[in-house]
Write a structure and sequence with these properties.
single chain, mainly alpha, two-stranded parallel sheet, two-stranded antiparallel ribbon, 23 helices
Amino acid sequence: MTDCIRTQLVSAIHLQEVELQDNPADKPADKPQNNNSNGSNNNDEKFTVEQAVEKIGFGRFHILLFVIMGSANIVEAMEIMLLAVVSPEIRCEWRLEDWQVALVSTMVFVGFMVCGVVAGYIADRYGRWKVVFGGYVWSAYFSLLTSFAPTYGWFIFLRSMVGCGVAGVSQGFVLKTEFIPAKYRAYLLPLGTIFWMTGSILIILLGMLVVPTMGWRWMIRLSITPSIILIFLFKFIPESARYNVSAGNVDAAVKTLQRIARMNRASLPPGRLAEPVLKERGSWRILLSPSYRRTSLLLWYTWFVASFAYYGSVLSSSELLEKNLLCVINADKEHQVKHRHESGLCYCIPFANSDYQTLLISSLGEVALVPLNIVLLNVFGRKISLVVLQLLTAVMFMMVNICTTMFGFTVLLFLLRSLVSMNFNVVYIYTAEVYPTVARSLGMGFCTSFSRIGGMIAPFIAQVLMSQSVIQALTPFAVACVICALGNFLLPIETRGRALLQTS
């Protein structure tokens, strides 16, 4: 009986094998299996966020992202450039000494420094979107309160709160970077300078048109308009898909990627999104791990110098114009009034229209060399670009002290602003690319905090030491840039064309 059953089973199996060989209609069912090199079916195919971002490519979503997130630079630039425009007015109203005027800028950067690390930690733990949106609301609210400050003490406190909000807004650079395909980052991120220049020009125009007629308080009230507009526009920007995946919220990441694909008229890679949940998010230990220790230490000093040089150039130009400290060959009557006399200080030397025009032209310098910036990034990479720009910045700082005409000074200032702006661009891009998703916002937060230390020191050199000696005030900026250029040769990682990492 048993032998009979065994014989029937063997015959049935043999018959089935013959049918499979003779019947090609059943083969399509096996086709996906044969085409998959891994020997798995479509349901087992997987893709990462990086692969999805590259597959979707550049399209309408990125244009929307570029405009809205780039406009965050308008807010940041207006809040920072406001210090240069309002300094002569508060000096006159409250009879401030040089160090008191410098302290205003320093307190803004204190707020930025303290909140920069906190904002980076929160962004890595709880999401980039929440931090950036909160930064918009916070900075607009306290900037408005600044316009009602009754005393100098209240003014510097409220400006420090504004700096705290701007620290949150600056995390928008990370959010923007995480959505852009690798080959487009070196083109789109430097173009964000256009928005920074727009913010600088807007605050200078407000100073030119509003301050002489309505006063500096109304200038500040009107300057928060871009923040209010962006608060409503920001709902069109989703949370970072890279962050959602790292936090285990895969469904939200997929919905975001599908939305971007629809806007760009593209498709996602076949299969399902699958990446490991990363529990160690927002940990400072990653920044000082063997893989990133040297990079972090060098970047912290690089950010310090980038901010030190940038705000040094902005505040130095304002100070040289306000106090008429320029070595100008053909100075007119407006530029012959001196800030310091034997009988004491002259507190009230308002900006003339020509001074506003000089600031406007120098602000245009921030975008004039963007094409050169893009070429440097794509041809020579990030590290060499940093070295070249920092050495040229050092040379340009020393040339500002040359005796020349007002036109010559404007040209020098134009070139200086171009170089320090390009340097800041490269530093931002390199930092966002070099750190993994689990620590990208925290890494950016630490770097921006160190940069604000440079911003805190810069006013006391550009606005206090400048009154004693122009050459002594410009030399520290040049020396810091040279040392930084030498240090950047030691950066161990080049990020040109490299994918953004999820984890170290």
